[in-house]
């Protein structure tokens, strides 16, 4: 069963628009400057925007596994290894260990070793296993949680 990733929350939309406008202005200024050194800075900025967009995940529940997939990762979490699933609608202080925080979403490691693929901070679903904690944001979080619980009962 495929679950659509949640649309971006207001903060993420604003941050994405600001980043893209800023990068566009800088890229335009570099390209029109006539300098020869601009190739690499422009490539790096375009690469950052494209890479962030490619991190938006697809979320699937099939064959007894939760699959979180984007252009860079294909995470498979067996439903039987899930200890707890909960909806988190409140926002709190989180620190980014390694990843992106704002451009198209929040992707990477946060709060130490938590793995985030969140596009909407108000629709976060926290999935705890023995080894890792994952946070994702399906468009319909309660329906997603209900499906996980139903699959756990059948195992």
Question: Explain this structure to me?
Answer:
The chain is an alpha+beta fold. It has one domain: PH-domain like. It is built from 3 helices and 10 strands, in the order βααβββββββββα. α1 packs antiparallel against α2. The protein is elongated, with a radius of gyration of 18 Å. The mean pLDDT is 87.
What is the fold's blueprint, element by element?
Layout: E1 2-3, H1 10-32, H2 39-53, E2 58-62, E3 65-69, E4 74-78, E5 82-88, E6 96-101, E7 106-110, E8 114-118, E9 124-129, E10 133-136, H3 141-153
Helix pairs in contact: 1-2
Radius of gyration, in Å, reads: 18 Å
SS strand fraction: 25-35%
The separation of the N and C termini measures 17 Å
Strand order of the largest sheet: 5-9-10-8-7-6
Helix fraction by DSSP (H/I, runs of at least 4)? 25-40%
Taken together, the total number of domains comes to: 1
Number of strands: 10
Major sheet description:
6 strands, mixed
* SSE string: EHHEEEEEEEEEH
Task: Report the average pLDDT across residues.
Answer: 87
Low-pLDDT residue spans: none
CATH architecture: Roll
CA-based shape: elongated
Task: Produce a short descriptive summary.
The chain is α+β, with helices and mostly antiparallel strands and 155 residues long. A 6-stranded mixed beta sheet has the order 5-9-10-8-7-6, with helices on one face. It has 3 helices and 10 strands, in the order βααβββββββββα.
């Amino acid at each position: 069963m495929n679950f659509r990733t949640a649309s971006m929350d207001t903060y993420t939309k604003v941050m994405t628009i600001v980043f893209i406008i800023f990068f566009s202005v800088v890229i335009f200024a570099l390209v029109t400057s006539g300098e020869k050194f601009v190739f690499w800075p422009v490539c790096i900025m375009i690469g950052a925007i494209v890479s962030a967009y490619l991190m938006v995940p697809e979320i699937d529940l099939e064959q007894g596994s939760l699959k979180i997939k984007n252009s860079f990762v294909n995470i498979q979490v067996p439903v039987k290894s899930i200890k707890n699933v909960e909806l988190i609608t409140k926002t709190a202080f989180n620190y980014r260990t390694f990843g992106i925080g704002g451009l198209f979403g929040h992707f990477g490691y946060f709060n130490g070793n938590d793995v985030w693929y969140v596009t909407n901070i108000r629709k976060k679903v926290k999935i705890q296993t023995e080894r890792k904690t994952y946070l994702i944001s399906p468009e319909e979080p309660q329906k997603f949680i209900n499906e996980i619980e139903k699959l756990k009962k059948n195992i």
